[in-house]
Amino acid sequence: MTGTKQTNPSVEPIIGIDLGTTNSLVAYCDERGPRILEGPGGQRLMPSVVRYNLSGGGVEAVGREARDHAVEHPKNTVSSAKRLMGRSVNDVQDDLAYLPYEVVEGGHDTARVKIGDQLISPQEVSAVILSELRVWAEAALGVTVRKTVVTVPAYFDDAQRQATRDAGRIAGLQVVRIVNEPTAAALAYNLGDNPGVGDQGSGIREKKSDGTVSLSTKLNPEVCSSENQPPATSHHPPTQTVAVFDLGGGTFDVSVLRLMKTEQGRVDQVLATAGDTHLGGDDVDRMIVELIQAEVRKQFGEQIAFPASTRQAFRNLAEATKIRLSAEDSAQIEVDLGADKSGGARIYQRTLSREDFNTMIGPWVDRTIDCCRDALRSAKCSVDDIDRVVMVGGSTRIPLVRDRVGGLFETEPYTALNPDEVVALGAAVQGSILAGINRDMLLLDVIPLSLGIETMGGAVSKLIMSNSTIPAQATEMFSTYADGQTNIKVHVLQGERELVSDCRSLGEFELKGIPPMPAGLPKVEVTFLVDANGVLSVQAVEKRSEKRASIQIVPNHGLTRDEVQRMENDSYAHAAQDMAAHRLIDLRNQARLDIRAIEKQLAKVGDEMDAGYRAQVEQHVAEVKAMADSSGVDPDKFHEALDAMDKSTVRLAELAITMTLREEQA
Ligand code: AMP
Questions:
Q1: Which of 323, 357, 402, 403 most suits a substitution to test ligand 1, by most atoms within 8 Å of the C-beta?
Q2: Tens digits of per-residue pLDDT, 233-248?
Q3: Range with the lowest mean pLDDT among 147-156, 507-516, 571-580, 588-597?
Q4: Edge-to-edge strands of the sheet including 536-542?
Q5: Which CATH number fits domain 281-360: 1.10.10.60, 3.30.565.10, 3.90.640.10, 2.60.40.10?
C-alpha cells in the first residue's frame, strides 16, 4: 500500500469517487491537494466489474480479477452496470446487444440483472464497487471512511442520480453530494472556484484570436490588455464558461458549463451537453482490426478464418498500436499467422504512420467535433465565449483529437492532469470543500517555487522566479550541444536550488525532428506560461524548422505552504555551494565547446602553423581538459585556465579564418 497517512484526525474525511462505466477511481484531497488513492499492488483504476456466484448470487470477484476472467464467465460477470442505473429495460434496449449477461424487467419499471434465479439491481452491483473502493480508501488513509462525493454524467436524470445515492447507502456510505462529471473535471483544474485575489491589474488572455499573450514576469513585465479583454481587476474572473470534452473507451460527451463564484459559494450550471453513448476509443481499435483483417485476407487468401482467440489478439494489438501512435510518428504491426497447409510461414507486417492513422480516424473525430458544435448551439454560446476546454477520458490522448478540439475552440485544451483521473480528483476537491479542509495549496495566487528547465551538465536554468504573480509568461532561447543533434529533451523543474538533483521534476518532453545542424545553430525558443489557474504550459519551438512540442503541468499540486517554505530556506542555506556547482557546470560546458572549436581549427591549419605555437596551444588544451574532467577543481583556477587557453588561440583563429577566406576565393 503506497498511500501516506496524512489525514487530519479532527476532520472526518470525505472521499471522491468516479463511478465509471468501465473503470472507477477513488481520490482524497487534503491541504496538499487531491490525489488518487491506490488499491492493492498500486492499482489506480478499478474495473467496474463484479462476478457473482452462478447458483447462490454471492459476490465471487470484484475489479481486475472479475474483468480478467469475464470471457470465461459471460453469464455471471456484470460490467457496465452504470448503463442500467435508474433505467427500465425499455430505456436500455440499445445497450442490451452489448451486454453478455441477461437483463430483465424488475419491479417499478427498473432493469435487473438475472444471474441463475437471482435478480440483482444495478444499484447493488454499483454498491459492491463502491464498497471495494471504500476499502482501498480506508487502507490508504488509515481511518474509517463514511462519507463520499460521487460523480455522475451531466445528462443523468433524477432517477439515475437517486439510484447512485442508493448504491452508496447500500455500501454503507453517505453520498454527501452528487457532482456532475464535467464539473468535477473543472474543479480538478481549480476552475470556477477561484476567489478574486488582490488587484494586480494583470489580465491575460490565452485565446489566440488576437494573438495577445504578452505578460512576461521575467523579460517584459508589462501588463496586457486588449480591446476585447478589458483589464481584469483580479486574476480570476468570477464567471467562467468551460467546455469539458470527455472521450473514453465506449462513450463520449461534451458539456458546456458556467462556473460562477458568488457570495454564497460556487455555483455551476450545465448549459448544455451533447454526445453519443456508443462512441469511443473502442471504435478506433475496431477500425485497426478491420484494416489488419482485410489486408491479411488479401495477402493470404479470402477464405482465411479468424477464431475468437485471434480476434481478441487482434483487438489487443490494435489498441497497443493506437496507443503507440499517440506518442510516435509510426507503429510497426506484425502478426504471425502460423504455417499454411504446405508449411510456408505466414507473417503479416505493415507500418502504420500517424498520418495514415489520422486519415483513417478523421470521420470518427469529426463526429465528436459535430457534437461540440451541437453543444455550443444548445448552450447559445459561440467559440469566443468558451474560456477553457478540459480534456477527460483516455481517448483524448490521441493527438488528432487534441488538435481538432484545440482548433475548434481556438485555445489549447487543458491536458495537464491524467485524463483518466481528473474526474475523481475533482470529486475529491469537492469533498474537501464540503469537509472544510484548508485548501490553501490550491488557492496560491503566486508561483510558490521557481520554474525552469534542465540545461547541459545537470544545471537548472530558471525561467519564472518564485513569488511571480500569476498569470506569468517567460521565453528564453536555447540551442543544441552536439553537432547534428535532431532531438532535444526538455525537462521541466520546480525549485530554488541550482542543480537538477536538488529540484523537483515536473515532467519532460522531447522536441523531435530538428534538421541536423552544427551545435549551437538551432534556435530553440522555450516558453513557460502559467495561466490564471496555475496550469503551466511549456512549449519548445525550433525556429528554423518550426518543429514544436509542448506539455502541460499543474505545478503546485502536492506541496504545502510549509514545504515551500522549507525548500526556500534550504536554497538560502545552500546558496554559495549551489552557485559554485552551477558555475563549474557552466565552465565545463564552455570548456568542451571551446576545445571542440580549437581542435577543428588545429586540424584545418595543419602544417601552416609552426610547431612551437602548436605545442603551446596543445598544452593549454590539455590543462583545461584535465580540469574539465576533474571533480574537485577550483572554479577560479578553472576560469583562469580557460581564459589563458582562449587568449593563446587568438592567432590560431585568425589563421583558420584566413585559410577559409582563401579557400572561398579559390
Ligand atoms: P476511459 O474510458 O477514459 O478509461 O478511456 C479508455 C480508452 O482510452 C480506451 O479506448 C483506451 O484504448 C484509450 N486510451 C488510453 N490511453 C491511450 C493513449 N495513450 N492513446 C490513445 N488512446 C488511449
A1: 323
A2: 344 567 899 999 999 9
A3: 571-580
A4: 472-478, 524-530, 536-542, 547-553
A5: 3.90.640.10
